[in-house]
Amino acid sequence: MSIETSKPGTDVDRHPVPDPGLEEHVERYTDVDQAAGDRAYRQVVMMLAAVPVLCIAFVVIYFAVPSDSFIDLFGMQWNALNSLLGLTGGLATLLIGLACVHWAKTIMGDEEIAEDRHSAASSTEDREVFAREFAKGAEQAGLGRRKLIGGALGGALGLIAVPAVVLFADMGPWPTAAVRKETIERTIWAEGIKLVNDITQRPLKASDIEIGQLVNAQPANLWDYHGTEFQVEKAKSSIIIVRMDPDRIKIPESRQDWQVGGILCYSKICTHVGCPISLWEQQTHHLLCPCHQSTFDLGNSGVVVFGPAARALPQLPITVDADGYLVARSDFTVPVGPSFFERDSQHDFKEGDR
Amino acid sequence: MAKPADVSVDSPALDTERPPEQQGLPAGVTNAAVWADERLGLASLLKKNLRKVFPDHWSFLLGEIALYSFIILLLTGVFLTIWFKPSMAEIEYQGTYQLMRGLPMSEAFASTLALSFDVRGGLLVRQIHHWAAMLFVASMTVHMLRIFFTGAFRKPRELNWLIGVGLFSLSLIEGFAGYSLPDDLLSGTGLRFVDGLIRSIPLIGTWAEFFIFNGEFPGDLVIPRLYMVHILLVPAVLLGLIAAHLALVVYHKHTQYPGAGRKDGNVVGYPLFPVYMAKAGGFFFVVFGVAILMGATMQINPVWNFGPYNPAQVTAGSQPDWYMGWVEGAIRIMPNWEWHLGSTTWSWNVVLPGVGLMTALFVLLGAYPFIERWITGDTAEHHVLERPRNNPTRTAIGVAGITCYGMFWLSGGNDILATQFKLSLNAVTEFMRVAVFVAPVIAFIVTKRICISLQRADAERVLHGSETGIIERSPDGGYSEPHRPISIDEKFTLTQHVQGKALEATPDTDGHGVAEKGAGVSSLRALASRWFYAGVIAKPTKDEIAEADHHADGHDADGHEVKAGKSESAGQISH
């Protein structure tokens, strides 16, 4: 089947200038000049000859250069082993490539040749033969008369996927309402749990925190957990404690007893996609997430003032115990972290709530 | 037991049939070739393909870079698996890197540190692997743009375009899975983001999250699972798709750029053996060599600077690898739309820019060849590439797409833009919210006008030749610039393209725009077709060229005035 290059009758339109045919071959400098040809030949051989030298250098460097030695060069500190192995190995590899390309471009014959192209489609005869053979096969299979086999086979093949899919049902616990309640909808905060500095693990007193200060904190019971469990709980329980001038911030009536003299405590996990929020603007009381720049107003119950986050930062109700230490009054009242479908978001704080 | 037949030694039946001795080949080589051919029949296979012709052009190397990067990734990846431990079990680090001694971290992170500091050459191979991954995605992206802008996806290559889109999307997943493995602070932050992204999917999000992470984030299985995805599942699929991609390239034969002697019915270039074996084989070593030198001299992903993952920490300026930057940008500039219906949460602020945008890109890419074909009604096979200017609307769509991608990508660094250029972060974000829609439209219009101008310039060159740069003064005081005629080869190249025509609506269609052959053209399709071809410059006709040639012969030095008079007729706009 020939290639349909253009619509019938438009051939003259397509080629207002007739095809002059392939351009004449122009000999290269290396073809006509014996010295240039010899030079190219030498270059290729020299490049290849350098490879064994570099390979030996690579092996010597591997065994001779200690892995903790450094070279100071161009104002940077280079790991000697890494750099030298890479330079020798890389150069050796590169030279093989350059030699081959140089050989092809300067020494190998460079006459362009044209090859005929055929349509991707099969010829009409091939199609007819195929159709005949297919009909024969279909006839032999008996599907024409006993149609149910085809349907039954299709159904069987379709359903055989079901056991295969079911096998994956144990990939993780099923997030049923009960499971969610014990996992993503709770943290390890509870009544009386002390707020501790997340590095020193020291319990925090209200008197330790000054106006304008921000402290990254964790529940004192976090270190009861280890390994994976520790990470899972930390990913939800991380909090920030800020102290602001109570006269300069809005504290709704329902949250008057969630704070201690302007010390407020919020989840550190962004309600957008869960980054730990870090950047504190002391003067505006804004907290900025460094990942996607959602901005929350901690002087206004953590409502979103900018960015892609849709929900206020959950606030942790706190109080002081008999010794003056900051303690939680309960767990968070809403799930912390990013949204999920089954999350009931009616109870999150919204601008205007009292 | 059958008794062996008694045959005399000189019986002709025993003689192995051997091809006539080849001249110049050593006996050993000939014997080996005969040995192999008697078992594999290679000669009949290779006689056609050994000298298969491939056309030459630098832009055809882009796909090669992607292929070779993939091979480099397989080779270096195998090396890394020898030491890397895909385990999230917590250990206390006691290795060579003093700053982290005594810190609790996952085995994955500790083994990455060991690879970087204790295994000789380990850091080098890690860096080659990461750089090769960058090259892989980058070259694939540019290769795809080359295919798009030259119309190489047209019939019969639509399926290969789809395979390419599959490769492109899988490579993003592959890259993401790979950089999540070391379990450093940056990659853990990336995983945290993916957790938020997955759980935002309406209806099934929480289930998907629990199934992928084996419960709550981070769990203890996500890194072993990503490891399997990264070193087995996705590479196997990539390998299969690459094999199919290349098989189709061989079957269709490579496309070629227009030029003298290049037709849809032929392919002009150099033979596979020996020229392309040396060039392409050599180029593999060039790419590999460059990747090694990059690994030796350019630091990438210094995980020891980030430290082990800690869900309570993050760094300002955290970003994914560049190829996920556009998704990151979309996530950042998306307005905070969320529905709270009853006791459910519909997190459009995450699912639309994350899942939605990625799906949209791949669907649009995959559908484009079919959409364009529906608009143009072009059913012909194409093997000669189109110069981008000769299909202004497609080129403009492509540039608009790049612009949109670029705007999203820049948004992924809105904090960096704000701090580096001393701008308000909020202003940058709000600007980008508009720019992702407006900038592509501007890019479309500008590109289309540039393409049409270039078409005019081509017509001008064909009819009046090239400017000589010499100003002549005529006896009566006028100044003009003589033009030198261009070569017949160039004239052909500038005029060989197929000039598409807008479809016209056939009155007797069913009105539903059925795209089937013979089913007629709906008015919607005709409208789309008119839009696609609007403003295209008609290329010079045979008569115009003949007349211009005649004119030039008669009035050698009569340059500028002639040019001004003629360009109008050449610049007619066809509708």
Automatic annotation (TrEMBL), chain A:
Membrane topology: Multi-pass membrane protein
InterPro entries in the record: QcrA_N, Rieske_2Fe-2S, Rieske_2Fe-2S_sf, Rieske_Fe-S_prot, Rieske_Fe-S_prot_C
Keyword Transmembrane helix (UniProt): yes
The keyword Disulfide bond is annotated on this UniProt entry: yes
Cofactor: [2Fe-2S] cluster
Keywords: 2Fe-2S, Cell membrane, Disulfide bond, Electron transport, Iron, Iron-sulfur, Membrane, Metal-binding, Oxidoreductase, Respiratory chain, Transmembrane, Transmembrane helix, Transport
Compositionally biased region (Basic and acidic residues): 10-22
Region of interest: Disordered: 1-22
Molecular function as annotated in GO: 2 iron, 2 sulfur cluster binding; metal ion binding; monooxygenase activity; oxidoreductase activity, acting on paired donors, with incorporation or reduction of molecular oxygen
GO cellular component: plasma membrane
Segments crossing the lipid bilayer: 44-64, 84-104, 148-169
Subcellular localization, as worded in the UniProt entry: Cell membrane
Pfam families in the cross-refs: QcrA_N (PF19297), Rieske (PF00355)
Role: Iron-sulfur subunit of the cytochrome bc1 complex, an essential component of the respiratory electron transport chain required for ATP synthesis. The bc1 complex catalyzes the oxidation of menaquinol and the reduction of cytochrome c in the respiratory chain. The bc1 complex operates through a Q-cycle mechanism that couples electron transfer to generation of the proton gradient that drives ATP synthesis.
Family, as annotated: Belongs to the Rieske iron-sulfur protein family.
Protein name: Cytochrome bc1 complex Rieske iron-sulfur subunit
Organism from which the protein derives: Micropruina glycogenica
Taxonomic classification: Bacteria, Bacillati, Actinomycetota, Actinomycetes, Propionibacteriales
TrEMBL record, chain B:
InterPro entries found in the cross-reference section: Cyt_b/b6_C (IPR005798), Cyt_b/b6_N (IPR005797), Cytb/b6-like_sf (IPR027387), Di-haem_cyt_TM (IPR016174)
Residues in Cytochrome b/b6 N-terminal region profile domain copies: 32-258
Gene3D superfamilies documented for this protein: Cytochrome Bc1 Complex, Chain C
Cofactor: heme
Keywords, in A-Z order: Cell membrane, Electron transport, Heme, Iron, Membrane, Metal-binding, Oxidoreductase, Respiratory chain, Translocase, Transmembrane, Transmembrane helix, Transport
GO biological process: respiratory electron transport chain
Domain of life: Bacteria
Predominant location category: membrane
A Pfam family: Cytochrom_B_N_2
Domain Cytochrome b/b6 C-terminal region profile: 259-453
A single Gene Ontology CC term: plasma membrane
Membrane topology: Multi-pass membrane protein
EC number: 7.1.1.8
Enzyme class label: translocase
PROSITE patterns in the cross-refs: CYTB_CTER, CYTB_NTER
Bias-annotated ranges (Basic and acidic residues): 550-566
GO molecular function, one term: oxidoreductase activity
Region Disordered, annotated ranges: 1-25, 550-575
Subcellular location: Cell membrane
Catalytic activity from the UniProt record: a quinol + 2 Fe(III)-[cytochrome c](out) = a quinone + 2 Fe(II)-[cytochrome c](out) + 2 H(+)(out)
Record field: transmembrane: 65-84, 131-149, 161-181, 227-251, 272-296, 346-371, 392-411, 431-451
Protein name stated in the entry: Cytochrome bc1 complex cytochrome b subunit
Native source organism of the sequence: Micropruina glycogenica
